[in-house]
Design goal:
Layout lengths: L1 H12 L4 E5 L3 H14 L11 E5 L3 E4 L2 H11 L9 H11 L8 E4 L9 H17 L2 E6 L13 E4 L5 H18 L4 H4 L3 H11 L4 H11 E2 L2 E2 L1 H12 L5 E3 L13 H12 L6 E5 L2 H4 L13 H15 L3 E6 L6 H12 L3 E4 L11 H17 L3 E7 L7 H6 L4 E3 L5 H14 L16 H14 L3 H5 L5 H4 L1 H11 L4 E2 L10 H16 L1
Parallel strand pairs: 1-5, 1-6, 2-4, 4-5, 10-12, 10-13, 11-13, 11-14, 14-15
Antiparallel strand pairs: 2-3, 7-8, 9-12
Helix pairs in contact: 1-2, 4-5, 6-8, 6-9, 8-10, 9-10, 11-14, 13-15, 17-18, 21-22
């Protein structure tokens, strides 16, 4: 927050006339800006800064005495409510031409009106006047996409979500309020420091107002209800387009095989500089299709997505792993289980779900989603991306995942035996009969077989008749995946690089010969 306020004050010092502020809490942003400016007026001028605020329902509101005087001087006796509605916004913007020097005028929820030709023109008309008078028009919005005529003339600033210190102040104040209302409660008078820290972790990623409301609702006479606080936070995060918090509850103990990647992730998640959240992108190659190459996305959305991810991971020093392999080999399950295994949230980043119908909306949705991930993880997220093929992923994106690329092959006999035990127990299959011929089966197909046996009330051999393993339905695809991974990617099951087995090499040659003859 301090960096954002410093940037805003610096913009005022150099007479920046129009500033767009992307903020999740406009009221808190206005309060913070006004407080910061009152502590450091422009160019050593000790006169208070006239402050006005406009919203579509109430019209103009003076935020201080000087603001009231400024409004009186420009309104020609009109009541503040006469400036309500989009037409009122145009009128007040035109009236600002005659406002006293040094004015700061806030427009709330500017994204609702800035595309109107009259509004954008009236705002643009203030550029030179406000530059000369050292005044500022501040356009506040949760996500502002500027029209073409304003893009070169407006400074865009992003207000960050509350950091740990701000959240701590919110939580501590809630305890103080409750202690006054219910005196004599030790847990309220002297809250457990661990409980306060757990509350802060559960509130990361929320704006100030919802964090205040959530902590107030979840504070009981026995202390903070942390699980309920997490639940409220999950709901709020899921209001961000394209974001959801995975709640499956799987851990690494529920996975058979993939022990090399599991062992590696355990050490990363519990070692030095351990991440505070998992950012999970499933099938990333589909989400970024058209970002590069001959079949480029004509809308530019995929290219912007790629650019944002590259810049974010570079600027935040974020890292992670790419998990590649055939469908059903356990990639997504490992990624989803990572957070639950160590008690941190797994935030699923659905790039396709962020795409909006309006120009610029998709790009803004990703920017907002990355801001939430930053706040939830305190800029310490581990990115885990799955894909079925690396062919279309550009090299610069692969390099951002500095923890490596892990290849998930089909489980071997030993791994399949472990997987059978896990799912037979989970589905409470007591009369399972003879285990079916599972050569070439994935873990997902073993789970599917157990699920069918439970649903149909039959043994595993009968349930297996309804399953066509991916090793048969997509044999050629798996062959190519193994070829591309052999000697190049880390084996997800065993230490070291993945090496295609001799029998599989022979099979590859057979497939190649068949393709040539065809």
């Amino acid at each position: 927050m301090s960096e954002f306020l410093d940037q805003f004050k610096a913009a005022r010092r150099v007479s920046t006339p129009i500033i767009a502020v992307n903020t999740a809490d406009p009221a808190a942003a206005v309060e913070g800006i006004c407080q910061a400016l009152s502590e450091a007026p422009n160019d050593g001028d000790k006169k208070p800064i006239p402050q006005l605020q406009w919203n579509v329902a109430s019209g103009v509101e003076a935020l201080n005495t000087e603001g009231a005087q400024a409004f009186s001087a420009i309104s020609q006796g009109a009541d503040s409510t006469q400036f309500r509605g989009p037409a009122g916004l145009v009128e007040i913007l035109e009236a600002f031409q005659n406002a006293p020097a040094g004015l700061i005028a806030f427009v709330l929820n500017a994204h609702r009106f800035i595309d109107d030709a009259a509004v954008s023109q009236a705002a643009w008309n203030l550029r030179d006047t406000f530059k000369t008078k050292k005044s500022t028009l501040a356009l506040l919005s949760p996500g502002l996409v500027l029209p073409a005529e304003l893009q070169q003339d407006v400074l865009i600033l992003d207000e960050p979500l509350p950091d740990a210190d701000q959240l701590r102040a919110i939580v501590v104040q809630q305890y103080k309020n409750a202690a006054v209302a219910y005196p004599g409660r030790e847990c309220l008078d002297n809250p457990d420091p661990k409980e306060v820290e757990s509350s802060i972790n559960a509130l990361r990623g929320l704006a100030a107002f919802p964090a205040d409301q959530a902590s107030a609702m979840c504070l009981t006479l026995k202390g903070m209800n942390i699980p309920r606080l997490w639940e409220r936070k999950r709901r709020m995060i899921q209001n961000t387009p394209g974001l959801s918090v995975w709640q499956g509850g799987e851990t690494f103990d529920d996975i058979g095989g993939c022990q090399n990647i599991i062992g590696f992730l355990r050490r990363v998640l519990t070692g030095r500089s351990s991440p505070r959240a998992i950012a999970f992108i499933d099938e990333i190659e589909k989400s970024l299709a058209g970002a590069s190459g001959p079949a480029a996305d004509s809308s530019g959305v995929s290219q912007d997505y790629l650019g944002q991810l590259l810049a974010y991971m570079q600027d935040k020093k974020a890292t992670g792993c790419i998990l590649v392999g055939p469908p059903g080999s356990g990639k997504s399950m490992v990624a989803k289980a990572a957070g639950s295994s160590v008690g941190i949230p797994t935030i699923q980043l659905d790039l396709g779900g962020m795409k909006g119908s309006l120009v610029g909306a998709s790009e803004q949705n990703l920017r907002q989603a990355l801001k939430v991930i930053s706040a939830v993880s305190d800029d310490s997220a581990l990115f885990l991306a799955t894909c079925n093929s690396l062919a279309i992923l550009p090299p610069e994106l692969r390099r951002r995942f500095t923890f490596g690329i892990f290849f998930f092959d089909l489980p071997d006999e030993e791994e399949r035996a472990i997987i059978w035990k896990i799912y037979v127990k989970r589905y409470e299959l007591t009369d399972t009969g003879v285990r079916p011929d599972d050569d070439g089966w994935t873990g997902a197909e073993i789970r599917q077989c157990c699920d069918l046996a439970w649903r149909l009330g039959c043994d595993l051999a009968e349930a297996a008749q309804y399953i066509v393993p991916v090793s048969k339905s997509s044999a050629e695809v798996i062959v190519r995946l193994r070829q591309s991974a052999s000697g190049r990617f880390i084996d997800a099951s065993k230490p070291g690089l993945y090496q295609m087995k001799v029998a599989r090499v022979a099979y590859v040659r057979q497939v190649e010969l068949e393709e040539k003859s065809a």
